[in-house]
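quick q for whoever's on today - can somebody do inverse folding on this one?? i tried earlier but teh output was garbage lol. tokens:
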């Protein structure tokens, strides 16, 4: 090996190592490694139910592409002010707690029901007839974008809140509960975090339904003071 050639390559190697060892941004695009701000896009891999952080250019590549590995997660959320769901219908959905989200999975070719737990998301058996009945009462559910939009339900305590929400918001709620839950009942902190989560989600949501005018006039500050008490262990 020519020693002079070897020596000439050393500075280039060192420069490459220095670039490699530079501190990386706290959050990066999972596709191109571009640094991201706190408010950034997400992509969803339906097959593995995996969320990826994405920069705007990479997210655009997957917009409206139904046959691609990843789907761009929409950023809009809608509060369903007049959602029709009776206690009997809720019981028929076989969800053991008062919180869950439902989305159509293209790999599974059916609607999936997940609810949060201290160990992460848990899939619940969802009877097709029960879901079809809910769709008939609420046709807006048929307009949800497969894989990346979900019906998010909050029926903890006296709450009756229903959203069509991006799938990343649903998994954010799951992560919050997993991270903050302590003991058998969860602890005061986690229930306050859940209250704040839904309060902020409602603020960002478009109100859908005949009661939208009334809903828009709600005092969000008062909503923050609503106490969510668990009816059962999550």
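ok took a stab at it. sequence:
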């Amino acid at each position: 090996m020519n020693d002079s050639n070897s020596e000439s390559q050393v500075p280039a190697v060192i420069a490459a190592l220095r670039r490699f060892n530079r501190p990386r941004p706290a959050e990066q695009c999972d596709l191109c490694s571009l640094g991201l701000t706190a408010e950034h896009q997400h992509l969803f891999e339906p097959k593995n139910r995996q969320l990826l952080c994405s920069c705007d250019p990479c997210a655009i590549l997957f917009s409206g592409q139904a046959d691609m590995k990843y789907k761009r997660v929409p950023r809009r959320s809608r509060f369903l002010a007049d959602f029709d769901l009776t206690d009997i219908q809720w019981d028929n959905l076989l969800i053991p707690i008062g919180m869950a989200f439902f989305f159509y999975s293209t790999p599974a070719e059916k609607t999936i029901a997940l609810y949060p737990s201290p160990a992460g998301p848990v899939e619940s058996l969802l009877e097709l007839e029960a879901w079809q009945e809910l769709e008939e009462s609420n046709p807006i559910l048929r307009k949800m974008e497969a894989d990346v939009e979900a019906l998010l339900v909050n029926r903890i305590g006296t709450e009756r809140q229903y959203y069509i929400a991006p799938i990343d918001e649903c998994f954010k709620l799951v992560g919050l509960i997993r991270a903050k839950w302590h003991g058998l009942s969860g602890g005061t902190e986690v229930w306050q975090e859940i209250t704040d989560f839904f309060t902020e989600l409602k603020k960002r949501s478009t109100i859908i339904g005949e009661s939208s005018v009334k809903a828009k006039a709600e005092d969000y500050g008062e909503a923050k003071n609503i106490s969510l008490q668990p009816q059962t262990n999550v």
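fwiw The helical segments are 3-21, 56-61, 87-92, 128-137, 167-180, 188-204, 212-216, 220-224. also Residues 223-233 have pLDDT under 50 and may be disordered. so keep that in mind when u check it
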